[in-house]
Design goal:
Elements: H1 2-11, E1 22-28, E2 34-41, E3 44-51, H2 55-70, E4 91-95, H3 105-121, E5 142-143, E6 146-147, H4 153-164, E7 172-174, E8 183-185, E9 190-192, E10 199-201, H5 218-236, H6 240-247
Antiparallel strand pairs: 1-2, 2-3, 3-4, 5-6, 7-10, 8-9
Helix pairs in contact: 4-5, 5-6
Length: about 250
């Protein structure tokens, strides 16, 4: 972790490519994969995220966010460098979204509607470079953060049995992590932040929400919940959370 943090601090020199009136303000929650700070760019509050993603990966994400913004979704919009690039040296600078997390069942229903609009807008979208969908992993062993070879054989069998129930479904972009901390709500909008886990997959994986706010039928919800638990176990393996999620996936 120390070495990663050291690299990130050096990498923040890239912020100068957004102009002379730029500054980091304070760190924000961003997990271990990225260093995320509030920043000021030309007098406006923004968010900077520095990490180790490839240029192809960042191009996929920033182009997606621009498209969703044009289509009317509330998302962080990439702010270009002074020469027009959407990222530089692993750094992306995005607009800051106001709002708080969902608190009521009505709030979560609004989140579900927003996720369904995301799914509608991105049918047929190309896969994020290097990623696999849940059904790809019925045959593939690896994909970005996932290495099934590192998991117990019996656990892999359970995960694949859960994902097999999604086979043949239409795919689209899924946000991948619509937890309360990644939602910014106001009376007028539902904003989704932190698109680090976004990829192409079956849309129901996004719709396992508190209180079944998406209104999925019992059978559909069970399939989605099992597949989602399997996905999170595989992505996070083998920390305590991943072990807990794998325990939720039924035996074959």
């Amino acid at each position: 972790m120390f070495e990663a943090r050291k690299v990130w601090r050096m990498g923040w020199e890239a912020l100068g490519q957004w102009g002379e009136d730029v500054a980091r303000i304070e760190p924000l929650a961003g997990g271990v994969a990225n260093d995320v700070w509030s920043v000021r760019v030309n007098g406006h509050l923004a968010v900077g995220r520095l990490g180790g993603r490839s240029d192809a990966d960042l191009a996929w994400e920033t182009e997606l966010l621009q498209y969703l913004d044009r289509e009317g979704l509330t998302v962080p919009v990439p702010i270009p460098t002074t020469d027009g690039r959407l990222f530089a040296g692993g750094l992306v600078v995005m607009t800051y979204l106001e709002g708080g997390p969902p608190e009521t069942q009505a709030d979560w229903r609004r989140v579900a509607d927003t996720l369904r609009e995301l799914h509608r807008l991105t049918r047929g979208w190309p896969q994020r470079p290097g990623w696999r969908s849940s059904t790809d992993l019925l045959h593939a062993e690896t994909g970005t953060k996932i290495d099934l070879g590192a998991m117990p054989v019996e656990g892999v069998a359970r995960c694949r049995a859960a994902w097999a129930r999604l086979a043949g479904r239409q795919t689209c972009v899924v946000h991948g992590d619509p937890n309360p901390g990644n939602v910014r709500m106001t009376a007028g909008h539902v904003g989704l932040i932190d698109w680090d886990e976004a990829h192409v997959d079956v849309p129901d994986l996004d719709l396992v929400l508190p209180g079944n706010a998406a209104g999925l039928d019992d059978g559909v919800y069970d399939i989605a919940a099992q597949a989602s638990a399997a996905w999170e176990a595989a992505v996070c393996w083998d920390d305590e959370y991943a072990v807990k999620r794998l325990a939720e996936v039924r035996a074959v």
